[in-house]
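Holo model, heme C. Inputs:
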Amino acid sequence: MNKQGQILLVVLLLLSTGFLISNQSPTPKLLVIPTNFPAPTYDISKNPLTEEGFALGRKLFYDPLLSKDGSISCASCHQQDAAFIQADHDLSHGVDDRLGKRNALPIFNAIFRKSFFWDGGVPKLDFVPINPIENELEMDEKMDNVVHKLNASAKYRSLFKNAFSVDTISSKEVLHAFSQFMYAMISANSKYDRYVRKENTLLDKEELAGLSLFKGKCSSCHSTDLFTDDSFRNNGLDNDQAKDKGREEITLNVSDRAKFKVPSLRNVALTAPYMHDGRFNSLEEVMDHYDSGVKNSSSLDAQLKSGTRLGIPLSAVEKKQLILFLNTLTDSTLINNKNFSNQKH
Ligand code: HEC
Ligand code: HEC
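Output:
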């Protein structure tokens, strides 16, 4: 290379490092989709995962600044040690300890959900945070005011600049940061996962018996390795006088009365109490419900009526085996993963 060429090269190098410094782009973060799971529903290309975006989403998730009186964060109701639901509460508690009408749903594996909330009222993950933020029984704040509070913080302005290259924060970046934290939270490392992926793990005889019972009696609704078909159904909790109209509140169709989202059963051993109103405290009670507690109503799922017998007949041994199988769906790496924990700094 001649002298001119060398000078040109140096100038180009200087220009490009200068460019990198003044226009630093966020660091891409790797996301691994488990081989035994269905395809994601969230379009990652519209909100690519980055280290900075994810960390910012996590900070927002743990920050009570987002509630009206600074007392409640998302994590108040979605606690990591309870697989991101609110432990010991049948109905969730918000600002001033106001009581919501439903039991919290977990956050993990949101990247695969077709809709959100027990009634499917929110179609996209990006819109989810608006709901708890503005719900007066939860954080009782306004989205505009959240954006205002964040813009007033030099720390947040710099974090948003690093993650999304913006000088002024808008609700779009707030929602994208939340989504990155939530969609990256994949839970797929239970004993059952390692067994189906043949990662040197076996289920014992009782667990295998439970799995086979589950396939025969439960997997029509709790289907795929997500353990839900994401449909809305009435599993016989109440008769026609149900207090909560469920899916009907969204579709306004009477035939959807008291239908609720089939919940994923992943980490179910950690997410008591159960059902949309948290009415059952243990998996034993859930088994008793399917066996002998199913109530008839106009929208009761056809699979839970055969002739005059309602529900799914289960012997005491079968109930025990089903529970042993459900216990294999616990992913302890999710509840111990520091990446999803509150990072105080
Ligand atoms: C006061 C308690 C409370 C707070 C605070 C709260 N949530 Fe929730 N969350 C719930 C309840 C209850 C549900 C189920 C609501 C329903 O289905 O009607 C839920 C549902 C969800 C779901 C839906 C999961 C699914 O599979 O459908 C997501 C995601 C979620 N919350 C994220 C958040 C985020 C993000 C925040 C903070 C901005 C937050 N939540 C704050 C109680 C809370
Ligand atoms: C007809 C569809 C259907 C069948 C079959 C079915 N379920 Fe469910 N399951 C649901 C629905 C819907 C809910 C949520 C109902 C609600 O909260 O209103 C649910 C909730 C649950 C819950 C509570 C989960 C939580 O996080 O609150 C457990 C546990 C459960 N089912 C286990 C089973 C087992 C075990 C079987 C087989 C014996 C089974 N289910 C069969 C539809 C079904």
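Residues 66, 72, 74, 76-78, 92-94, 100, 102, 104-105, 107, 110, 113, 116-118, 128-129, 132-133, 138-139, 178, 182 surround heme C (ligand 1) (CB under 6 Å). The mean pLDDT is 91.
Archived with the compound record.
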